[in-house]
From TrEMBL:
<keyword id="KW-0175">Coiled coil</keyword>
<keyword id="KW-0969">Cilium</keyword>
<keyword id="KW-0966">Cell projection</keyword>
<dbReference type="GO" id="GO:0005576">
    <property type="term" value="C:extracellular region"/>
</dbReference>
<dbReference type="Pfam" id="PF02465">
    <property type="entry name" value="FliD_N"/>
</dbReference>
<keyword id="KW-0975">Bacterial flagellum</keyword>
<dbReference type="InterPro" id="IPR040026">
    <property type="entry name" value="FliD"/>
</dbReference>
<feature type="domain" description="Flagellar hook-associated protein 2 N-terminal">
    <location>
        <begin position="11"/>
        <end position="108"/>
    </location>
</feature>
<feature type="domain" description="Flagellar hook-associated protein 2 C-terminal">
    <location>
        <begin position="216"/>
        <end position="431"/>
    </location>
</feature>
<feature type="coiled-coil region">
    <location>
        <begin position="387"/>
        <end position="414"/>
    </location>
</feature>
<dbReference type="GO" id="GO:0009421">
    <property type="term" value="C:bacterial-type flagellum filament cap"/>
</dbReference>
<dbReference type="GO" id="GO:0009424">
    <property type="term" value="C:bacterial-type flagellum hook"/>
</dbReference>
<dbReference type="Pfam" id="PF07195">
    <property type="entry name" value="FliD_C"/>
</dbReference>
<dbReference type="InterPro" id="IPR003481">
    <property type="entry name" value="FliD_N"/>
</dbReference>
<dbReference type="InterPro" id="IPR010809">
    <property type="entry name" value="FliD_C"/>
</dbReference>
<keyword id="KW-0964">Secreted</keyword>
<comment type="similarity">
    <text>Belongs to the FliD family.</text>
</comment>
Amino acid sequence: MASISSAGIGSGIDVLGLVSQLVAAERAPTDQRLARFESTTKARISAFGALRGGLSGLESAIKKFDGTGADLGRKATVGDGAGFTATVGTTAALGTYRIGVEALATAHKLHSAAGASTTQIGYGTLSITVGSDAPIDVTIAQGKGTLSDIRDAINAKTGGQGVSASVVRGDAGDVLVLSSTKPGTAGALTISASGGDGGLGVLATTGGTMTTQTAAADAKVVIDGITRTHSGNKLTDAISGVTLDLTKAKPGEVFSLEVTADPSPVKASLLTLISSYNTALNALRTQSASGGEGKVAGPLGGDSAPRGITQSLRGLVSNNYSELAALGFKTAVDGSISMDGAAFDKAIAADPGAVARIFGSEGALGKPLRSTLTSYIGNDGLLTDRTKALDNRIKQLSTQREAFNARMGRVEEAYRRQFTALDSMMSKMQSTSSYLTQQLAQFSKQS
């Protein structure tokens, strides 16, 4: 194939410039059409993404009312100076309880007799039992029987199994301290020794020198005259839905625990729902704006999908308007909603189950709203399908552009061949013309 590398060869025709201009003129309409189509399609994909985002936020907000999410919360009020604190869940029964903390649970702590830090207590095996658990055997090697050595051996063997060892240096010498990590009688420590030289027997709880610094004791609390003992200071099952944290023993004293309804969690969820609903409506309105009179048209202007979604959402609110109004809800001309907090507090005090009946999983508004949102943004929803179709269109445009570029490459090659042939022919004609001119000039001289 002939190659043209610069202007002025042969006939002097600017082949490269001509070919470039012809190819550019031929490809411009299709380039513009594909670019415009691609830009429009990507804008629509982005617009549907904005709609999905708005509706997903609304879906998350309504799901907060699933299960017991639409039930009023609970608030615990404890009498001043009580030896306990309380937290309550939504299942706690409303009412007042009289509670007294007679005793706190304490963890067992043992001290050895004091001795010099270098004294070898002995060697053999220490068996440590925590409550009713299986004994933990700790081997003390010969020559490794100081209190510090024994401490290290115990911690290495029993780490995380209910007991810890330390050495406290006092005026009389070193003291081995064994502490149960389990409060109450269920964590009581029992120590025995066997084997070796018998020296470890001084660390046994029976026949040895170990003394109790803190006795293992269970917590004791009296609730409405009913006594309950527990191995720890946190009771999660004494009162249904209530957790008691015991902080100080106050024998003979009784304090009140009042469990009352707390609408603030549900109110906060409703405010989130309102904000999410208004955000979704605004996204629908923005992306489907028709434009005109100086206003910018949205990417989905003229598309029926956002209009249909808007009508569905507003229709659901309209169908339940009287119930919503009773809770303090209001609607604006543009379809957005708001809530009068004071009116809500008053309504919910009179009818605690109103929120569940409207927004719960089976609620008059909650159930159809959940279903409607699934039909739009679920795996087989309208917006999901529309987005997939647009993604496929982008792929098709890419294929079309590749095919178009290949065709334009062939067109450019054809132009090059044509102009190369033209250049060659004109070059030959110029040579022939020059030859004839020379011959005629010589003929004239001879004549």
